[in-house]
Amino acid sequence: MLKGKKVLLCVSGGIAVYKACALTSKLTQAGATVKVVMTEGATKFVTPLTFQALSREPVYVDTFEEQDPTKITHIDVADWADVVLIAPATANIIGKIANGIADDLISTMILATTAPVLIAPAMNVHMYDHPAVKANIHKLKSFGYQFLEPSEGYLACGYVGKGRLMEPEAILTYLETYFETKTSLLARKAILVTAGPTQEKLDPVRYFTNRSSGKMGYAIAEEAAKRGANVILVSGPTNIQPPPNVQFISVTSAQEMFDKVMFYYKEVDIVIKSAAVADYRPKQVSGQKIKKQPNDWAVEMERTIDILNTLGEQKAHQLLIGFAAESEQLELYAKDKLTRKNLDMIVANSIVQEGAGFQGDTNIVTLIKKDGSNVSLPLMSKKEVASKIMNEVESLLKENEK
Ligand code: CTP
């Protein structure tokens, strides 16, 4: 994601400057071009030469030192950037840019740039808590500047609290997600993902369920959120943590899943139904624990509602993606479901192949689209499968926009 990206890294004067060195190195290794601008204060901690060596680019400190007479540096470099990142951002630089002051190269460039500005503060916990700093941050957020929240922990001043610069690895991930989101068609799209098994109650202690772990659906929800989508994850009971940045809705039975999915259906753009929904449930649910009898016992089952089928019938603007887990005649059965349920794409996986199907961390799937085209993927992690699925969803969105 960072390959070829132009990052203007503004380094202001706090002890966390040493972390900006590691950040410069990581960004450069990830393929970004990094130009560093420093305040005088920052140069007291680390010399410009360090950043020059790490970025292999000139480092800028003085507004009035013009190296190239054909250019005005603060405008030229401000225009060059795809993104401006201030890390570490001191209370002083935050205060200056919140108030339009331009008395050094960084604050001048911030006024001159039209690129998005990301700010990673680092300071003493009481300074970070000061109403003036809070008001300045609030003001900058209202301008559309994004803040990379400092973390809590040991601070160089000896205090323990909030004010530590976000770690370079985390800043790198933030930037990757930032560029992914910016370029993705999924940004701000509303996606509903279902995941996991359902449980169909028989009595207070027994239920019918299946072996779905929820891993595939959770990976899809995570990937969609990473690409900037607003994700609603409706999940049956699982043992895994929901990904961050998704609206999580926990359900138990097929009927409950149906109710939640239908509640949100009208307002979403895409539905991905990876849940392994029970096709049958006990016809009678006993309020008391059923006692064993000497003879055999047959439980009468009735059909649950087919959620995906109902979504297909009521489809308006939404893209519908279903799953087909088959043990034989994979493509034939999957294509039948694709047409019968009025889907745009189906993710077909053979549950008998080694490394595919329920429980594991890997899967082998074929993505079949309604125009008949298909993509057969080799064995890969469920996270990678999720990324491939979202690539195809993006291409479906592109076709729809034509
Ligand atoms: N599905 C659903 N509601 C159900 C059952 C399944 O929404 N009551 C969805 C699943 O989430 C999945 C797809 O339908 O996306 C699976 O299709 P389905 O025809 O139900 O496959 P199987 O359950 O494997 O059934 P079959 O016995 O027909 O192969």
Verbal overview:
The chain is an alpha/beta fold. The protein folds into 2 domains: 6-181, Flavin prenyltransferase-like (Rossmann fold), CATH 3.40.50.1950; 190-285 and 299-401, CoaB-like (Rossmann fold), CATH 3.40.50.10300. The protein has 14 helices and 22 strands. The protein has helices at 17-29, 40-45, 48-55, 73-80, 91-98, 105-112, 125-129, 131-142, 168-183, 215-226, 254-265, 307-313, 330-340, 382-401; strands at residues 6-11, 33-38, 59-60, 83-89, 117-121, 146-147, 151-154, 160-164, 190-195, 200-203, 206-208, 230-235, 246-250, 270-273, 280-282, 301-303, 319-326, 345-350, 362-363, 365-369, 374-376, 380-381. Strand 17, helix 13 (330-340) and strand 18 (345-350) form a beta-alpha-beta unit. Helix 1 (17-29) runs parallel beside helix 3 (48-55), helix 1 packs across helix 9 and helix 10 (215-226) packs across helix 14. The longest helix is centred in the C-terminal third of the chain and has 20 residues, at 382-401. The mean pLDDT is 94. Bound molecules: cytidine-5'-triphosphate (CTP). The site of cytidine-5'-triphosphate has 14 residues, from helix 12 and strand 17.
Helix content: 25-40%
How many alpha or pi helices? 14
Largest sheet entry = 8 strands, mixed
Number-wise, the strands total 22
What keywords describe this structure?
single chain, about 400 residues, alpha/beta, Rossmann fold, 2 domains, 8-stranded mixed sheet, 6-stranded parallel sheet, about 35% helix, elongated, binds cytidine-5'-triphosphate
